[in-house]
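Duplicate of #3305? Posting structure anyway:
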């Protein structure tokens, strides 16, 4: 008979945090590289920026990886040769096996142009000045599937020049996280800071849905980050400083 050891909820939360922290650390490294590379007296240009971004984005989405997209999105007007600009690469899938660059419409006069500065993955980190996890949401631009996007601002001499980040498909995160989440003593649902489900050991809680439990919103924003018991009998355990939390049922 095989015995599966039950881990504490704190250990499960730490395991989730370790996976997400690995992505955070990678993106922080990309930001540092860009901020070093772009500290030049010459005007910033897409011609210069794109090869730098390609050098880290293509390896990040190649092969067996949690990431399905990675790159840099420029602040409007930050580049002298492109008012609006995305340097974003996508990993392969069943229909497009090779890594490819995301095709974009950068002309505001075009009917298919989309102002990315209105989107959460741009808006929140550029206002807060710190990294942000968006989703899960259906990414109709890149994957047409449930996606989590992590982005952080890139600053040159204190001025915003864009954001750098990555996309991870929820089904890939589920394959990574669910085995560990199932080792806890209680059923668990992983949610973002807005209470949106990332994944769950309960198949009834679908990714992207909002988990509605009395007291959950306040618990998710508790600065102490400790395990918090809710009146319903559920408990909330923060996953480090990832902005994610386990809700235990």
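Output from current build:
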């Amino acid at each position: 008979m095989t015995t599966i050891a039950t881990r504490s909820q704190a250990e499960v939360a730490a395991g989730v945090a370790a996976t997400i922290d690995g992505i955070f650390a990678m993106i922080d490294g990309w930001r540092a590289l860009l901020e070093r590379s772009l500290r030049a007296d010459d005007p910033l240009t897409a011609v210069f920026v794109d090869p730098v971004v390609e050098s880290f984005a293509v390896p990040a989405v190649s092969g067996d990886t949690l990431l399905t997209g990675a790159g840099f999105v420029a602040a409007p007007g930050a580049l002298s040769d492109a008012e609006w600009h995305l340097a974003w690469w996508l990993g392969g899938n069943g229909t497009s096996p090779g890594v490819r660059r995301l095709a974009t419409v950068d002309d505001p006069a075009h009917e298919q142009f989309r102002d990315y500065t209105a989107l959460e993955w741009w808006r929140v980190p550029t206002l807060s000045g710190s990294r942000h996890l968006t989703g899960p949401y259906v990414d109709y631009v890149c994957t047409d599937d449930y996606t989590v996007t992590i982005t952080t601002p890139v600053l040159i001499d204190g001025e915003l020049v864009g954001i750098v980040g990555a996309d991870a498909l929820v089904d890939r995160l589920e394959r990574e996280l669910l085995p560990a989440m199932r080792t806890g003593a209680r059923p668990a649902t992983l949610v973002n800071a807005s209470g949106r489900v990332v994944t769950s050991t309960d198949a009834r809680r679908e990714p992207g849905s909002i988990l509605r439990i009395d007291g959950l919103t306040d618990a998710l924003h508790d600065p102490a980050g400790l395990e918090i018991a809710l009146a319903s009998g559920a408990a909330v355990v923060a996953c480090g400083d990832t902005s994610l939390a386990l809700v235990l049922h």
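Confirmed duplicate; merging threads. The longest helix spans residues 9-37. The two ends are 28 Å apart (CA to CA).
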